[in-house]
Amino acid sequence: MKKHPCLYLGLLAGVVAITANTLVLKAAPLMAVNAESGGLLKLVLLHTTPVLPAGPLPVVKAEGFKLLFHYLTGLGMVGLYVLVFEPRLPGNGWVKGGLFSLLPWVLNGFVVLPLLGQGLAGGHVLTAGGMAYFFVANAVFGLVLGGLYAYLRQQQAAAGV
């Protein structure tokens, strides 16, 4: 398997982007907005809890595990961006990241949440403001990822690395 020379830059940009996304999502309750349902983890638990031994369930439902799951899922998205989408998307880093941010939003809103019975974009459990806020949180992830990754690549090229 060929190593991607810029994957580590993507991971660095990705951790910053996931952190920005996480902070935006965690700030939602401060504005009385319900914008996140933890849909993917809920979907995974829905299908694995019946086969998991009872011992790990408290750990899986702990806030620290939820945060770890969020970061790992985000890093998977970062890998997709760096290896598949970034080389093919048009525009500068900000544009590429903004376009890419639609992927996790669409996957969550049109696949995960409906499979949980929460409706399209979580419409059965989220207000229009919550849905818009979740869209913005995904946009923050993509914009930070795309912009920072492009900047790091430019710095790397300027350094002749």
From TrEMBL:
Transmembrane parts of this sequence: 67-85, 97-120, 132-152
Keywords, alphabetical: Membrane, Transmembrane, Transmembrane helix
The protein's name: Uncharacterized protein
Biological source species: Hymenobacter daecheongensis DSM 21074
